[in-house]
Protein: Sigma-54 factor interaction domain-containing protein
Amino acid sequence: MRNLPHDTPLLSPASILSDSWRRSQHYGLARDDDHRPVAGHEQLGESRHRYDWIARYASPLLAQLTPQFRTRAGVLVLSDPGGMVLESTGNSGFLQKAEQLALAPGNVWSEDARGTNAIGTALALGRYCEVSGKEHFLSRHAALFCAAMPVYSPRGELAGVIDISSPASLPWQDATQLLSRAAWQIEQHWVQKQITAGQVLVQLRPQGQPELAPFTHSLIFEDGILQGANSLACRDFGLQPQDFGQRHQDSIFACAMENGALAWMRDTAYQMHIDRAQKRPGVIVPDQRPGKPAEEPTALLAPSGVNLEKTLRVVNAGIALCINGETGCGKEYLGQHLYRQSKWRSGNFVAINCAALPEHLIESELFGYMPGAFTGASSRGYAGKFREANGGMLFLDEIGDMPLALQTRLLRVLQEKRVVPLGGNSAFPVDFSLVCATHRNLVEQVERGLFREDLLYRIQEFTVEIPPLRQWQNKGLFIEQLWSELGAPVRGIRLCQSVVSYLADCPWPGNVRQLLSQLKVLLALSDNGQTVTLCDLPDLPRSAHAPLSVPPTTRTPNETACHAPCINELEAIRISQGNMSEAAKRLGISRSTLYRRLEKQRA
Ligand SMILES: Nc1ncnc2c1ncn2[C@@H]1O[C@H](COP(=O)(O)OP(=O)(O)OP(=O)(O)O)[C@@H](O)[C@H]1O
Structure:
């Protein structure tokens, strides 16, 4: 068992292990126990709904990491804070085995259920853990190597873990780096999505230390009071869950000064970065206090083909808006932008993913309930999402996936503008801006009997189509804006024109989401002051890599290899469908020579 290098080593790994074994015995477990704690379908659905951070912030990352598991036996697992596996993905061969090894969704890995194991012990201690082979308390898990990193919510609560499991004979040596980076990315995304109008996001970014580069300390303040933070900030500023909504930034920064946290940050040349909701990140000098943005607000990076001004007028008039577009093209991003600019910004922005709501929870979640309305209901009752959105914006994501029964009830709320909570008699009036989003063709859904026609007319009073990124007119400019939003100018890193043109020509099936993550990777891999050239491009996922101008080929690599002396660089790339390594091989040169030649041609 190992603990994370930057954790305070209060206990040695051996004592962590022996303490965990002692706890396992205390739970009444025996090493040869063979019971398999697995949650039912309903419980799994409930937990997935309750811990929707996994669907929102972790699943996209999982999808990005999955290719690493193609050639290595292993799986990535995400669990809730009770140790229940909610998602697993990875090497398909090992996944099958993992199902037998109980790593499929629904299996419970808390320490009291299975004794010492990475997921359960990481949750019990709130820190990174690796458990290998016979270190597992239950003998039947001795075939596994597992490493788990806790994930914390922006309010500093333990939200679950991300885990890598592989055969004990093939332990995942770089699990620490992969998991700490993944947990940080999830938390960072989560924190950034929390910021609402009037709040300020303070980010402390390391400068000049490539190994620290991706790790940013993030804190959210509203009127100077702490509202959120990632776990790095919680750790280094000594923040506790009870500090949220209570502690003032002055006291937080003063304490950090006193205990040396800020001095440590200055030593590692941190830059403080402030982002106000509605305003673009502004760089301020480190000794300036958070609260004032350094730059004037700018408009959002508008997707091409969308008339923002017209759309905002529609939203302000209370007209229901439907945003269509492929996944990752920025539907929710546009919704949030409209909300912040609109007259609805003093209310809440309430986003619901209709595809992720388990059917039996829908009613109580949307309509709310009265105290004691059903077994297990909170004694304080619950207002429900419709009422939470009152005076603000209700963003219904994946509306095309809403179950038919709920469509009927939604239509009634929209028509009557009143909500009756479960177990209640009186109706509460609601008034909100309705914005729906979908990647589906709703007219087709109506024809197939999957979507109510009357609801379609009600939610599609005005429609905006965000085109796929590959069809945007101004991709080069957009890439440069994103690059600068990511903070590249602060580090003096620029993209050379051939890189911008190359990226603009990639098809980006994952749209802005995919482009953004590739730019983040590129930035993380770059040195301060560097000009990024084609030679510096990391391997992009194959589907994103093939520039649009590359037509498919029917020739096999062997056929084309015979013609190698006759083809030039561009032909080789075309024939290789954009795979630069393959193209270089065809030409009999190295990948970097190929990039250098292309660079020369474009100059
Ligand atoms: N115009 C934009 N400018 C800057 N960032 C953007 C823009 N559009 C999208 N993004 C970023 O791209 C990512 C995906 O955007 P978003 O979640 O809004 O897409 P979506 O279309 O709602 O995706 P899905 O259909 O999968 O829910 C987010 O990180 C978002 O911040």
Notes: Residues 475 and 504 are 5 Å apart (CA to CA).
